[in-house]
Amino acid sequence: MLPAMQGVIPPALTTSSADGTPNVTAISQVFYIDDSHIAISRQFFNKTVRNLSENPKLAAVITCPETFSMWKIGLRFIESQSEGPVYERMAMQLEAIATMSGMTDVFSLKSADICSVESIEMLYDGRVD
Amino acid sequence: MNIPEKLVTFVTGTEVAVWTATSDTQRMPDVARPTGIVKGDSDDELIIYLPRKNADKMLVNLEQNDQLALMCAHIATLESYQFKGCCTAHWPANDEEVESQKRLMGAFSEFLVQIYGFPADMAYKAYFSVPIVALGLRVEQIFEQTPKRGAGTPIQKG
Question: Quick check: helix, strand or coil at residue A52?
Answer without folding.
Answer: helix
